[in-house]
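Batch manifest, entry 17 of 40.
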Amino acid sequence: MKKIVFLAHDPGGYDVIFPVAKSCEHDGISGLFYCIGPAAQLNPLHGIVAKEALQAIQDLLDSRKIAGLVTGTSWGSSVELQAIAACKQAGIPNVAILDYWSNYQIRFVSQAGEVIYPDYYIVMDELAKAEAVQAGVPPAIISVLGHPGLDKYIACQSSARGLNEQRKKILFLSQPLSVLYGETLGYTEQQALADCCKVVANQDNCILHVKFHPKDEASFQQRYDELAVAGNLIDIMPEYDLIIGMSTMGLLHAALLGIPTISYQPNLRKQDLCITNKLGLTKRADSPQELQLLLSAKMDGQVNNNSSQLSHRLIWLDGRSTERVVRFIREVFK
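Output type: structure tokens
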């Protein structure tokens, strides 16, 4: 029996691939799930070395035992692109699922500068499609089906959430922006966290914790080790009164759970890629002074933000994105 191969590298890619792979398995669709790089840290059971994953896919292609390929859209890794290229050469249908509203086209540029598009490019909503087309992605390959990684947050979202009565807990969500952009954004995650530490220290009765990204530099994580927390975001975020991030997907997760959030991007020089700012769920703080004011307002309950502000035209708000993607996969891989 031919199998569908699911391949994930980045945590974001894993978030959209894992629920689809699990749903396919539940529906009796034969598949193989390969997690490489950071994704292997999230799911060691399916972890595999990148070279071995590519060889396994090539073996399936050679033996004609692969029905199709489903990948994430990792940044800074060529493995998914190599797998897509191998399938395209063999005439095997392939699908890539977008996990965030940015870098729509550059995700498919190989280290050699070659653009390798998948046969089908699943994006989360019409906003993502419009921005992808503007970035140069061929409209014909794009399908708007939602965001499988958001389904679990929508299922758990709450329309009301009270702050703790005693010490307020704040969680900073890090992401390896300096690894991707250097200092071209006008700030780095190191600067953002250092500012947050100073601002929170001046706030009465507050405590700051940090959730590091798997791709954050080791030295950076070690420097703030005493503040670090571990676990799945959906499990740990409800324990906090406020979530601070830069442009991370975690800010949208928090908003969907009804948790007050702040986007902190000091001295931002480029286009704001934060999806919660685009959707009007968060107001960006551009300096420590603005962060202090916004944090104080949030702690006093003067400002809140949750998914009730979202437009119902956003397809992923129904929490059925995984279902649509699996249906699509059934159709193109039959």
